[in-house]
Write a structure and sequence with these properties.
The chain has helices at 31-38, 46-52, 122-129, 158-166, 239-246, 299-302, 304-307; strands at residues 18-21, 57-58, 61-62, 74-77, 92-96, 100-105, 136-137, 146-152, 171-179, 188-195, 204-206, 212-222, 225-232, 274-282, 289-293. The chain is an alpha+beta fold. The longest helix has 9 residues, at 158-166. The radius of gyration is 23 Å and the shape is elongated.
């Protein structure tokens, strides 16, 4: 894979500019013709405006709408940012040194820019608020999952910490609030095959070779609810949510499982009751044992009475 070249443009809002390498076999007369073919979703007139305003550059400087197409060269520009509702929750710093930053991410804040979430992501906010322009994540949490996230301050160290997660050398503990069902025998190891199709919001458990495993334990019961400890062995998309739902115990506040709910992106009223409680690993550089724990709590447990109307019937979330 070709490595991205250093950009002649600075970061903006904590984000690197986009780089496009013009194909060697391109036949477009001008750069504008190529951009129209490469970025067909751009608003009418936007590409022309970017070129007229000097927002597209190469190594020698700004390019214009009449610039000839030059095969094999690279260009850079800043992406247009989507309109985003500010996420009204703070990111708490649990630990910081010259190598690592560990934070307690709130619900509704994506870990990294993606789709319609760019500025309102943990990475961009932390780069800006803490003046850490080279900050990068060692792993990710879903936007609607809260809890402990590990970032790397210096880019050259990222691979060492990412490899811990890739090789399953990190002990991850999650906590969830879901219905209580005395008929479900716990603890249990849920093992299944999870498939997530591109363009489809929800993942599925399907027949075939298992690729996911989670140990599920009941920590405490309170009326109709249970507080569960989840210890994933693997890290498939939506694994914990699927595995609890398959037992007939869908996590409270889940907008996908067992059914897809239509919720506004700025509806903060019912966060998913799933928390990345702790991370534990041996530091690959120092050999030091490290453990980081979230200080957050789940609303459905601390404000039990307010969530009673949101508790589904036992077994209603079971996936066949």
């Amino acid at each position: 894979m070709r490595r991205a070249l250093p950009s002649p443009l600075p970061r903006r809002h904590g984000l690197e500019p986009a780089e496009l390498r013009l194909p060697d076999d391109g036949q477009w007369p001008t750069l504008l013709d190529y951009l129209r073919a490469r970025l067909p979703w751009a608003q009418p007139g936007r590409l022309e405006a970017m070129l007229d305003d000097g927002e597209v550059v190469d190594r020698d400087g700004p390019l214009g709408r009449h610039t000839p197409y030059r095969p094999g060269t690279s260009i850079w520009f800043h992406r247009d940012l989507p309109d985003e509702a500010p996420v009204p929750f703070e990111i708490d710093v649990l630990y910081r040194d010259d190598d690592l930053l560990v934070v307690d991410k709130p619900h509704f804040l994506a870990t990294i820019p993606r789709g319609r979430h760019v500025l309102q992501t943990a990475l961009v906010r932390l780069r800006t608020e803490l003046d850490l322009p080279a900050l990068s994540p060692a792993h990710r949490l879903d936007r609607i999952t809260a809890g402990v996230v590990l970032f790397v301050v210096r880019p050259e160290l990222r691979g060492a910490y990412q490899s811990l997660f890739e090789h399953r050398s990190v002990r991850k503990v999650y906590e969830a609030v879901a219905p209580f069902d005395p008929a479900v025998e716990l603890p249990v190891e849920r093992v299944s095959r999870i498939v997530k199709e591109r363009g489809v919001f929800a993942a599925q458990e399907l027949p075939g070779e298992p690729n996911s495993s989670t140990r599920i334990e009941l920590v405490e019961q309170r009326g109709e609810l249970g507080r569960y400890r989840l210890l994933p062995v693997t890290g498939r998309t939506h694994q914990l949510r699927l595995h609890l739902c398959a037992l007939g115990l869908p996590i409270l506040g889940d907008p996908l499982y067992p059914v897809v709910l239509d919720r506004a992106v700025d509806d903060w009223s019912r966060p998913l009751q799933l928390l990345a409680r702790s991370l534990e690993f041996t530091d690959p550089l120092s050999g030091q044992a490290r453990r980081f724990e979230s200080r957050r709590s789940l609303q459905a447990w601390t404000a039990y009475g307010e969530w009673l109307g949101a508790v589904p019937e036992v077994g209603s979330g079971a996936l066949s």
